[in-house]
Amino acid sequence: MKKRLAVLLLIVCSLSVYAQEPTNNQQDDDLFAELDDLTIESDNEVIATFKSTRLLIGQSTERVKQRQLHFRISHVFGKIKGIDNFFGLDQINNMHISLEYGLTDFIQLGIARSNKPDKTYSNSIKISALRQRDGASPFPFALSYFGSLDIKTREYFPEARNKNFSGRLEYVNQLLISRKFNKDLSLQVSPTFVYRNLTETENDPNAIFSIAMGGRYLISRSISLNAEYYYTLPTFDTHDGSKNTLAVGMDIETGGHVFQLYFTNAFALHPGKFAINQSGDFFNRDINFGFSILREFSFSKKSK
Amino acid sequence: MNKSLTLLLVLLTVAVTQAQEKLITRTGVITFSSETSMENIEATSSQAASIFDTSKNVIAFNVLLKSFKFEKALMEEHFNEKYVHSDKYPAAKFKGTIDQDIDLNTAQVYNDVTISGSMILHGVTSPKTVKAVIEVMEDKSVKVTSDFKITLATYKVEIPSLVKDKISADIDVNLEANYK
Question: Domains of chain A (ranges plus CATH)?
Answer without folding.
Answer: 68-297 (2.40.160.40)
